[in-house]
Sequence to fold (114 residues):
Amino acid sequence: QVQLVESGGGLVQPGGSLRLSCTASGDIFSITTMGWYRQAPGKRREWVTTITNSDSKAYIDPVKGRFTISRDTAKNTVYLQMNSLKPEDTAVYYCNAFSGVTYWGQGTQVTVSS
Fold:
């Protein structure tokens, strides 16, 4: 079992920045990839970014150049640095981990509004 706890969401003005954190606990050595998904009101949950154990990264096109995923293995934590935020980035952001089984965090709200 893997437990994921997110933090760092909030309200930010367009053009602003936020950093989300996701700390994993439990059977962390079985995790092969971690990432972030988001779900905007009335929309399906969508994949945003993934980082693998070899530090390979991938991003959905709308966030390329603005979002950066990184990890601190000593802290079992993955970060999502979000810059140049837009109103369309407003969503609940979910941390995700895969170890043969998919695990989800509880979600953290990101609201981009003036």
In short: The chain has no helices and eleven strands. The chain has a mean pLDDT of 96. The CA atoms of residues 36 and 73 lie 17 Å apart.
